[in-house]
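look at this fold:
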Amino acid sequence: MEFKGSILIKLVLLLQYLSVFCVSQDFDFFYFVQQWPGSYCDTKQSCCYPTTGKPDADFGIHGLWPNYNDGSYPSNCDSNNPFQQSQISDLISNLQSNWPTLACPSSNGIQFWTHEWDKHGTCSESVLKQHDYFAAALNLKQNANLLQALTSAGIQPDGGSYSLSSIKGAIKDAIGYTPFIECNVDSSGNSQLYQVYLCVDTSGSSFLECPVFPNGKCGSNIEFPSF
């Protein structure tokens, strides 16, 4: 019986080790994704402003997404750790300004943040708890300051057309790392600047060169619509 008991104890310890190992081996880097509200709204689908009002004419956070170096990504990693608004109560007004929802029907953003935490945030909880996760994204947005990077290079959200290379160059010059630019199509079928991806280390604090870029391609010249 003592022999069987020792085997059982070893099995329990092995399972505990494996569970810790699986949690710690989460991902290789983050995509930090910001979107231009003018491009979100200027489509056939249109948009709805949050219940708090029209957001500022600035890039808004879409998400902080754990990824693997091969281009795949984990998702919905821990259903036992759901979004809890009480954990980020001190960040709500900041999130409403910098991580607004434009989906219809109008809402206060809670559903959007819940989705982002459940799908992406739970896959990074070994290094970023819920409050840390949202705070990290807010800090990254401030550090990137995409709109300033573009406007300083003469790239204005005025409905004009700009070369894709100049947009990438302006962001790289300001931040130091190459972005991935995602386009969508406006209501007239023209390609426009939609989302900017930057890569971030697993601590969620420092930008780095992307190990891999998402799929997708913009034209050589794209619109930067007003909002």
